[in-house]
Design goal:
Number of helices: 10
Strand content: 15-25%
Largest sheet: 8 strands, mixed
Helix content: 25-40%
CATH class of the largest domain: Alpha Beta
CATH architecture of the largest domain: 3-Layer(aba) Sandwich
CATH superfamily of the largest domain: P-loop containing nucleotide triphosphate hydrolases
Strand order of the largest sheet: 6-7-8-3-9-10-12-11
Order of helices and strands: EEEHEEHEHHHEHEHEEHHEEH
CATH topology of the largest domain: Rossmann fold
Distance between the termini: 32 Å
Structural class: alpha/beta
Shape: globular
């Protein structure tokens, strides 16, 4: 029986927009607009979508690096949104994050040893000797050497820096790791090495991942289930195999159709999207995707579709299926 590690209920994040002489509030940017999902223990949930769809904001809200406007984030039965800053700091021992930019996320003035020791010091784990031993062990685990501990971040390549970021996330022995586009800044040849490392670490340390990315090929390789986001909303979520073999939402179909194929002689049926992404400050009424959808119906312009189970384990927010 699968055990739910993390549950997100009706999560929202609205950023106020101010303007004018007195800086009055003019509206809100709805970065994340009422999303709900769960993550089972030991699985990898991928979150995909175009730039600006709210997937990175979602990841940061789960860690409460950004405070949610509304909704609940329940981790092992505890609602993280109700915890004090001190209680949340303790909870982060069980939840860690790997950031997109492997250089900006590392302190350039600290050695690798200082960077990796910091989480242990913050959480009061071990004495000085035990911490140094843990640093050396973790460097070996991520494919680096113990002598790298005395070096600074600028002395490493991008792939090596991301390995350091992964090692830092593992120092406190967390249960959940939120990886925010961890390979998008790396060369393609290095991406596969880091992805394989993440998979090996998941097996070795019984980790649960939320893997945020815009590259659908990368997400398919590593994810058990995939959630597709559009304009702050979750439009489809199912297993990786189901999503790629039988996508339901028109936006998901368009995304998959845009993935390049290595065979130049193979022609794909593509659903080309017209128009630009609407502004999250003033999203369309009804279904947020209706302004770009070829299958748009009258109901799509007025009524927002809810995420419903269309097939066993396959959820979509689309009137094409809910109206049946």
């Amino acid at each position: 029986m699968t055990e739910v590690l993390l549950e997100v209920n009706q999560l929202k994040k609205y950023f106020p927009v101010t303007g004018g002489l007195f800086g009055r509030k003019k509206g809100d940017v709805k970065a994340v607009d009422d999303i709900s999902f769960f993550v089972n223990k030991g699985e990898t949930l991928g979150l995909v979508g175009e730039s600006g769809c709210g997937k990175s904001t979602t990841g940061r809200m789960l860690m409460r690096l950004i405070e949610p406007t509304d909704g609940k984030v329940v981790f092992e039965g505890k609602d993280l949104t109700t915890l004090s800053s001190g209680e949340m700091r303790k909870m982060r021992k069980e939840m860690q994050m790997v950031f997109q930019d492997p250089f900006a996320s590392l302190n350039p003035r600290h050695t690798v040893e200082q960077i990796l020791e910091e989480p242990l010091i913050v959480h009061g784990i071990g004495n000085k000797e035990e911490r140094k031993k843990r640093v050396k062990e973790m460097l070996e685990v991520v494919g680096l050497s113990s002598y790298h501990a005395k070096r600074y971040p600028h002395q490493f390549s991008g792939g090596q820096r991301q390995r350091i970021g992964i090692a830092r996330a593992l120092m406190t022995k967390p249960k959940l790791i939120i990886a925010d586009e961890p390979v998008s800044a790396l060369d393609v040849s290095i991406q596969s090495q880091v992805l394989n490392l993440l998979e090996d670490l998941q097996k070795e340390f019984q980790l649960t991942y939320i893997f945020i990315a815009h590259d659908l090929g990368v997400v398919k390789h590593i994810s058990d289930r995939v959630g597709v986001m559009y304009l702050g909303r979750l439009v489809e979520i199912t297993t990786a195999d189901q999503l790629y073999d039988k996508p339901l939402h028109p936006y998901t179909k368009a995304l998959l159709g845009a993935v390049p194929v290595p065979d130049p002689t193979l022609k794909k049926d593509r659903e080309l999207l017209t128009g630009d992404i609407p502004s999250p400050q003033n999203p369309p009424a009804g279904c947020a995707f209706h302004t770009r959808c070829q299958d748009c119906m009258d109901i799509c312009k007025t009524e927002r579709p809810q995420l419903e189970e269309i097939e066993p384990g396959h959820f979509a927010a689309c009137h094409l299926y809910s109206s049946r």
